[in-house]
Fold this sequence. Notes:
Layout: E1 9-10, E2 20-21, E3 26-27
Antiparallel strand pairs: 1-2, 2-3
Bound molecules: zinc ion.
Amino acid sequence: MGKRHKVVHIRCRRCGRRAYHAQRGVCAACGYGRDTRINRYRWKTKTVQRLRLR
Ligand SMILES: [Zn+2]
């Protein structure tokens, strides 16, 4: 009955995606808050700035 009301992910200030977990303080896409470097994976290309890494 409309349970998805909480804002879980807010805009990440590093990768710009709406993947930053507001409560945990970790970005799901680039790993901001957990990782110093932006993590990029082949299977995550869509996530980080929507770039294709080829
Ligand atoms: Zn991010």
